[in-house]
Amino acid sequence: MKIEKFEDIKAWQEARKLTIILYTITAREKFRKDFALCDQIKRAAISVMANIVEGFDSQSDIEFIKFLIYARRSATEIQSHLYIALDTGYITDKEFNGFYIKLTEIKNLLNGFIRYLKKERQK
């Protein structure tokens, strides 16, 4: 499949789905009162999506790769924040595991895309 617009990027699609779910759980009464954690998780989720888009529009594979790495880092940041949400009782073990797995999938998609772009540059 040819990528013609950023919405075609599988990692962006999955990050979008995850962001909606994260917004839903951070809206829970107990969670939303933790302004710092709630805000940080939402910002990191937005950052995953935004960095993919910024990279897509960068006009250079080198820049695109750089932004995909930023997106991957933001996904890892969310994984770390989820431990706090778990430890404070804002999310269940099951939710934590689901989010963690989904973030790992997103990071794998990003890693695959980075590898692809690096190969394309070598041609």
CATH topology: de novo design (two linked rop proteins)
**Poorly predicted parts:** none
* CA-atom Rg in angstroms: 15 Å
Figure out the total of helices.
Answer: 5
Work out the number of β strands.
0
The top-level CATH class is Mainly Alpha
- Please indicate the count of domains: 1
What letter string, H or E per element, gives the SSE order? HHHHH
* CATH 2nd-level architecture: Up-down Bundle
Helix content: over 70%
Distance between the termini: 19 Å
DSSP strand content: under 5%
CATH superfamily: 23S rRNA-intervening sequence
Shape: elongated
What's the overall average pLDDT, rounded?
96
The secondary structure category is mainly alpha
